[in-house]
């Protein structure tokens, strides 16, 4: 019985808090009053990668750090800074890792060339197929 | 033309091998700061506890290397790290703290419980300075040389086994 109770207690136990006791930053979940600025911020936030939930954008992530980064992005946009400058500021700190927007660095060339290469391979295969059919 | 039949199978085998390889040896997910080798960005943080001064970028260019520890009272690995920091302090290392998303009473309680190796502690309530340093979590530590240039970043808690490395990096920063 004791074991069962203990096991049940473990099931409902709260994991140790990994979040702070402070409320979310002011602009983390609040839209900017100017719709044009909010649209700019939203577009940028969709393309900035969350440091905690890697694979999510800061717009999607519920991590506190992502909230603080949304706050940072909205504050800077509201202050008149260009989205490209904010992205650059983040890339300077975290590398191009932080941005989802593909760059033109040599490391990203395969990304740009892959569709072309696949098209060429596809055309080649198709030609081969058509020839076979005609021949047969 | 016989061999061509097996091309799709070979492609599949390659794909599977690639997937199994990445499952067995997952890539490194830590994100290091690109500011190593560059001056600490300007910042000025208010004191996290009344008993100690806050922290600014100017405080870090003090003429000798310093260890800047980014921590939080709500961070579990930080508790164990304090003992190692105190060991470093006993060896003459100057340590400053940045308390991320923390309240005065929580930081004071954390220091009273676990010990206090810090000379200055700045409060970073919205992770702004943490982000401007290129740090991605707590705990993390930066070694800053006497001119205020970031020389080394340690991601995660400094374990007792890391002490010789940290001391060597501090020596390098002299």
Helix content of chain B: 25-40%
Cα-to-Cα separation, first versus last residue of chain B:
68 Å
Morphology of chain A: flat
What is the overall shape of chain B? elongated
> On the 0-100 scale, what is the average pLDDT of chain B?
95
**How many DSSP helices of chain A?**
5
Classify the beta-strand content of chain A into a percent band: under 5%
Mean pLDDT of chain A: 89
SSE order of chain B, as H and E?
Answer: HEEHEHEHEHEEH
Summarize the structure in short.
The complex is a heterodimer of chains A (136) and B (174). By secondary structure, chain A is an all-alpha fold.
Tell me what the structure shows.
- The complex is a heterodimer of chains A (136) and B (174).
- Chain A is 57% helix and 0% strand.
- With 136 residues, chain A is mainly α.
- Chain A is flat.
- Chain A starts with a helix and ends with a helix.
- Chain B is of the alpha/beta class and 174 residues long.
- Chain B contains six helices and seven strands, in the order αββαβαβαβαββα.
- The longest helix of chain B is centred in the first third of the chain and has 18 residues, at 7-24.
- Chain B is elongated.
- In chain B, 40% of the residues are buried.
- The mean pLDDT of chain B is 95.
